[in-house]
Specification:
The structure holds two protein chains of two kinds.
Chain A: H1 2-7, H2 11-30, E1 35-37, E2 45-53, E3 56-63, H3 65-76, H4 84-104, E4 113-115, E5 130-136, E6 139-148
Antiparallel strand pairs in A: 1-5, 2-3, 2-4, 3-6, 5-6
Chain B: E1 4-10, H1 14-26, E2 30-37, H2 40-53, E3 58-62, H3 70-80, E4 88-92, H4 99-105, E5 110-113, H5 118-132
Parallel strand pairs in B: 1-2, 1-3, 3-4, 4-5
The chains are: A alpha+beta, B alpha/beta.
């Protein structure tokens, strides 16, 4: 049963998979450095993608509005030409790519799960699951990932 | 895909539409008009407009969209006979989604997995050239 296998996945393994997915997104899509950080992100904006099927759970990205704006500018390669909807959209896309990157690192059976389109519930994240912090251009963002059987 | 290229980008994310457009330019395409649509239904409407108003050279469509997703878009495009010879590249954040294979069966010519680089986009376009040759 795939979910049973996932319950046995240790936090360290999931954390490593999140780190690899985040690094891949920043290397390929932003060509910017992003380093793991011990501190938590200031709540401001949160995007979430759900997994369903062979894996039930979700992935969320939490960050301050200031960091979200920096991220949007880096993704779009511009300064200043953004609005709030675009910033939320950029954070949703970041979450989507990290979730997809994590999923691609699962075994073939677990990877047979669906992913929702990104949702922006607002505020901070749920706080559960494996959580990893990263520093991007002086701002901190947090990725949380949880799975359940 | 030589000369001035007319492209349709179908994606619910305005940010991703801009990123794809930038990647196409960085991949060396001489982009002319870039049409955009926020979901499959809007993409079909754009194709209908193109059928009346001139050709299209390339379609890029997200697989995972609200309202009408990429698979429905492909199926409906085929059913209506819209832009039949125009190559389609799907874009997905979930490269192991089994629907990628379904999209290929439904008429897509390839896919680009997010995150991607301009070089990877260029590679996919080169493959389209080879297929067309």
């Amino acid at each position: 049963m795939p979910t049973d296998e996932l319950t046995g996945m240790d936090e360290q393994r999931i954390a490593g998979q999140i780190d690899a997915a985040v690094t891949e997104v920043f290397d390929l899509m932003l060509q910017r450095a992003c380093a793991p950080a011990a501190c938590a992100a200031e709540p401001g904006l949160c995007a979430c993608v759900r997994f369903s099927g062979a894996v039930e759970g979700g992935c969320e990205v939490t960050l301050s509005m200031t960091t979200a704006v920096r991220l949007t500018e880096a993704l779009l390669g511009m300064d200043g030409a953004w609005d709030e909807a675009m910033v939320a959209d950029a954070v949703g896309e970041l979450c989507n790519m990290i979730a997809g990157g994590w999923k691609s690192r699962l075994g073939p059976v677990e990877a047979m799960c669906g992913m929702s389109v990104p949702a922006i519930p607002g505020g901070g994240g749920g706080g559960g699951g494996v959580r990893r912090g990263y520093v991007f251009e002086g701002g901190v963002f947090e990725v949380g990932l949880w799975v359940r059987s | 895909l030589g000369g001035c290229v007319r492209v349709l980008i179908v994606d619910d994310s305005a940010v991703m539409r801009k990123i794809v457009e930038r990647a196409l330019r960085q991949a060396g395409l001489d982009l002319g008009e870039v049409l955009v649509a926020g979901d499959g239904a809007a993409g079909l409407a754009a194709l209908e407009g193109c059928a009346a108003g001139g050709g299209l050279d390339l379609i890029l469509s997200d697989l995972h969209m609200p309202v009408m997703d990429g698979l429905e878009f492909l199926a409906e495009r085929r059913r209506r006979g819209l832009a039949p010879g125009v190559p389609v590249l799907m874009i997905t954040g979930d490269g192991c989604d089994p629907r990628v294979a379904e999209a290929i069966a439904a008429g897509a010519d390839g896919y680009i997995s997010k995150p991607f680089t301009a070089a990877q986009v260029q590679e996919r376009i080169a493959l389209l050239h080879l297929r067309a040759a």
